[in-house]
Design goal:
By secondary structure, the protein is an alpha/beta fold. The chain has one domain: EAL domain (TIM Barrel, Alpha-Beta Barrel). It is built from 11 helices and 10 strands. The chain has an 8-stranded mixed beta barrel with strand order 1-2-4-5-6-7-8-9, surrounded by 4 helices. A hairpin with a 3-residue loop joins strand 2 and strand 3. Helix 3 packs parallel to helix 5. It is globular and about 50 Å long. It binds guanosine-5'-monophosphate (2 copies), manganese (II) ion and sodium ion (NA). The site of one guanosine-5'-monophosphate (G) has 14 residues, from strand 6. Keywords: Membrane, Transmembrane, Transmembrane helix.
Length: 254
């Protein structure tokens, strides 16, 4: 696991934390509907590290606020670049449980939007369902403040958390991201396909977009379209791309 001191240096040095950007597309036309920001640590010795090995370290103590600021700044900067190129889609940022337990998080988001002169609706915050279980009172207040600001709320890894259904009854959500595991299994497993169909119907009833994650094959794309799913993300459409490749990729997909 990453050492806090080392991670602090990486944050200060700025160039070790990099954002990869993965398009979300309309399943039918392939046109972009959004972009998810995925952080990586470009470690001098260990290479490109996944958030799994360092996000936990960032979530404790005084590193959280500068990390949040860094990720929001890079994501909104990138979104401003594709907006300037005429691609009118939001940026999605993954939010940790820790952030939702931090009463100052909505103000940090508001500050970032102001710094980048970005309309709040152009920012989607992806929340993993499991965060909803701890200290519900604080989490609900933070989410209510974000909703009030008109930032979009997305449920990440939908279907995998025990609290997923309770969560959507407490918070009005704009998007459900169906977990990759169901997409991977749906062409072989009627049960997995039933979960995807259920998510599509639930999304429609809640007035929330449904995005299928981890689409890797044309067969999965066809199966999703047959179930009425309209948006997706995955290697079949595009891998996560570095910042300098995202605008041309979006213009090409549009
Ligand atoms: O891209 P990859 O599979 O390595 O991502 C692993 C996990 O890291 C995903 O669940 C994703 O939501 C999470 N993640 C990616 N970027 C960020 C980030 O900026 N902040 C937080 N908290 N999690 C992130
Ligand atoms: O938990 P979250 O949905 O934020 O994590 C997204 C993760 O899924 C990222 O690490 C991203 O790199 C990865 N990912 C995106 N598309 C695909 C795909 O088509 N296949 C696989 N295996 N992983 C994917
Ligand atoms: Mn995500
Ligand atoms: Na996910």
């Amino acid at each position: 696991l990453a050492l806090p001191a080392e991670l602090h240096d990486a944050l200060i040095a700025k160039d070790q934390l990099i954002l990869m950007l993965q398009p979300e597309v309309d399943l039918d036309t392939g046109a972009p509907t959004g972009v998810e920001a995925l952080i990586r640590w470009n470690h001098p010795r260990r290479g490109l590290l996944t958030p799994a090995v360092f996000v936990e370290t960032v979530e404790v103590g005084e590193l959280l606020a500068p990390f949040t600021r860094y990720v929001l700044d890079r994501a909104l900067e990138a979104a401003a670049a594709w907006a300037a190129a005429g691609v009118d889609v939001p940026v999605s940022v993954n939010v940790s449980a820790r952030s939702l337990l931090d009463a100052t998080f909505p103000a940090q988001v508001a500050d970032a939007l102001r710094r980048h002169r970005m309309v709040p609706g152009r920012l989607v915050l992806e929340i993993t369902e499991s965060v909803a279980v701890s200290d519900q009172g604080v989490v609900d207040e933070v989410l209510a403040a974000l909703r009030e600001m008109q930032v979009q709320i997305s449920v990440d890894d939908f279907g995998t958390g025990f609290s997923s259904l309770a969560f959507v009854t407490r918070v009005r959500v704009d998007e459900l991201k169906v977990d990759r595991s169901f997409v991977t299994e749906m062409t072989d497993s009627p049960a997995a396909a039933a979960v995807v169909r259920g998510a599509v119907e639930l999304g429609a009833r809640l007035g929330a977009r449904v995005v299928a994650e981890g689409v890797e094959t044309a067969e999965q794309r066809a199966a999703l379209l047959a179930l009425g799913c309209t948006a997706a993300q995955g290697y079949h459409f595009s891998r996560p791309l570095p910042v300098d490749k995202i605008v041309p990729a979006l213009v090409h997909l549009a």
